[in-house]
């Protein structure tokens, strides 16, 4: 039997020659054991995730009202949503505006909070808990609370604004202010991002800061030249998660505004839900879901692709 | 953190979205057997053990108890039958029942109302109960209010055996009426002095800023439902031939404008923000913040439990030149196609809609029973509160109901409500709202009729 070293050497040579390395008996056993180990997840994924996704793709080409058999109608659902359905475009508009405002603002706030909580402050653990707390409260309960905060007559927000002698807006009872209200409300949960950034901050080696300080960098320069580059993988993670999560906004609109007033908060997922479970157009709802899937996929891939230019991975040279 | 883990994470996130709708695909789309046994096929009822499930929405304790008793009575009558209830929260009713039917395991009976009867009827998922009644020596539709049976019958088919109905009336606070120097409301639906003008005058007399801080403390009226007023005004959401929107008719426009003016011009009705801050119509009414509100008979139960509240009911006010309209929502039970044995379902249905069950509707649930002689007996009409219960019963000859066309929920929640809400908020004129809703209504109708 050849030595382990020789096997590795040969495998490396085959790799270099662009050939697939031949598996040894042991490696094959290990691979089989590996697949067995991941099989619970793999099966769960195939049966409960991939199969429904593919089924939804088929359903999206049908008119299906559940009780009668799905009727194949080709691309008519997509044709309708792209060219004939004003509500679809309204839901896209509302959702995109929400994402555009919510994602950057919450990223900046999360990072600012994380920087603050990374200082040696008295009671810092307590504050961290307080800031993170909203993230663990169910969104339904949070929504009920914000209904009260936003109430134009009796809510705490307008009572505060009234202190300055100004009457606040009608918030969720106005088609102009309902969407801004939900964006403001979403900032309530910046604690989630804060925790992620905090973990990233604490992973930055102190010697980098020491070196920068010795080289004469001030606080701002240390932040720009050390903190941000070192944190960039975490920023990428947080941004992508945030974009995906923001595109999926549903609960707040479902509970607080029912998509209104006048479809001002008709987010795409709410529109999918209504088509599926209020009006029972399963085919059309599946088509809408696929559009959302593709939109999120494309945006996420674009972000990942762009990350080559701004994300710095430690241990890689030249940022590539 | 590699690209690979990213795309997987993303993939999972995205897939979770579509999984909900797609899970349905796992269930074979088996519709109820269209040729399901009807009574006249003479299927024999064996003594074999049978398990029956009645499907309901709503999970309040008194509902659950009522349904438990109905199941027990079924088992007492037929010892070989194990009967039970399946009660789900109202919001999940449609998807639960649809999924069960699609999976080939429909309930044996199912609750129906103005929301669900058109939908399931449109899906051809319900059996016509008339043949069962005809073949049954114990049963007659004559005991029910004839208008309910008449309104529920489409093309010779009736899918719901009624159990209760909810006539809409004006609930009013007598103490606030006294303070404003007003007499009690009339009790006759035919009385044309109780009309939209006198209704507005009454509401204006009741609206008050008691502490003089410039904000209204008592509102004359609150209308959680606009549809009854649309009908009172002689309009409807659909044209007579049900091919297009009816909201553009002069009567419909006038009725909607009148409603919008109640809040926006006359200030006799609270804004949505005030309602949200103060609670439901009943909360506002109980707290003395609203002097009149419209609701079905379900208001009786809750208001009767409030001690020291002096209240009564009056008919809906008539619009000029229009006949009285007794807007009503009725409910009952039907038999889904594809049940294990339609004959057993029918037997269960009979118990759910029988005299004893109607008495429960009157006394425990608080709605008006569908059986006329029970409604007019001491079980409903004879109860002490409110003093003029007869108003509910007298609405029967003028009974009108929610549109019965299958896509009515989509027409309302997709096309009409978002636009009318803007009109009632004052963000849009009634004409503009109706003009925006019209094409959307027409589009849904065109798809439905296959144009």
Automatic annotation (TrEMBL), chain A:
Gene3D superfamilies xref list: MetI-like
What are the residue boundaries of the ABC transmembrane type-1 domain, all occurrences included?
92-303
Q: Name one GO cellular component term.
A: plasma membrane
Cellular location(s)? Cell membrane
Q: How is this protein positioned relative to the membrane? A: Multi-pass membrane protein
Name of the protein = Sugar ABC transporter permease
Write down a Pfam family by its short name: BPD_transp_1
Keywords (alphabetical) are: Cell membrane, Membrane, Transmembrane, Transmembrane helix, Transport
Query: A GO term (biological process) for this protein?
Result: transmembrane transport
TM segments?
A: 32-59, 96-117, 129-149, 177-201, 222-247, 253-273, 285-304
TrEMBL record, chain B:
UniProt xrefs under Gene3D superfamilies: Periplasmic binding protein-like II
Lineage of the species this protein comes from: Bacteria, Bacillati, Chloroflexota, Caldilineae, Caldilineales
Its recorded name reads Extracellular solute-binding protein
Q: Which organism is it from?
A: Caldilineaceae bacterium SB0661_bin_32
Q: SUPFAM superfamilies from the xrefs?
A: Periplasmic binding protein-like II
Instruction: Enumerate the CDD domains for this protein.
Output: PBP2_TMBP_like (cd13585)
